[in-house]
Specification:
The chain is mainly alpha-helical. The protein has one domain: Arc Repressor Mutant, subunit A. It contains seven helices and no strands. It is elongated, with a radius of gyration of 22 Å.
Length: 140
């Protein structure tokens, strides 16, 4: 038997998690259900508890900010952690690496994209030259 919660899409759950400040009780209240029913529903749908799912969402939302250069000291309160060490510990527990390693990994990816940059620029130039030639033919 389908539940009314089955109609809620994954992206809607992510928005609800942000609105609930990543708290299980607030998420259950927003879904107009009990914590126990929410727990059973999450085990069935996501194969993890709401707390585990919310922790993953917190870190997924924090990761881009961290990669952009925000400091853990600035982010910990925004995502509901009482101390910066708690955020760092959650990164290690869920992602298997500390926040500094995530930032360094992003730097390596950025440097790789810079190395590929000139090749991509040449491809774009060739494409624009070709499209300019086609447009010139159409005007005549």
């Amino acid at each position: 038997m389908a539940s009314r919660m089955d109609a809620i899409k994954d992206s809607d759950w992510k928005e609800r998690a942000k609105a609930a400040h990543y708290r299980v009780s607030s998420l259950a209240c927003g879904a107009k259900t009990s914590r126990q029913y929410l727990h059973n529903y999450f085990l069935r749908r996501f194969r993890m508890s709401p707390k585990q799912w919310l922790d993953q969402q917190k870190l997924r939302d924090a990761l881009p900010l961290l990669r952009d250069g925000d400091m853990i000291k600035e982010l910990h309160e925004q995502f509901g952690f009482s101390h910066p060490n708690h955020l760092a510990r959650a990164f290690r527990r869920v992602l298997g690496r500390n926040p500094g390693a995530c930032r360094a990994l992003n730097l390596v990816r950025f440097q790789r994209s810079l190395q590929k940059g000139p090749k991509l620029y040449k491809k774009v130039q060739n494409i624009t030259k070709g499209s300019a030639q086609i447009l010139a033919r159409q005007k005549c």
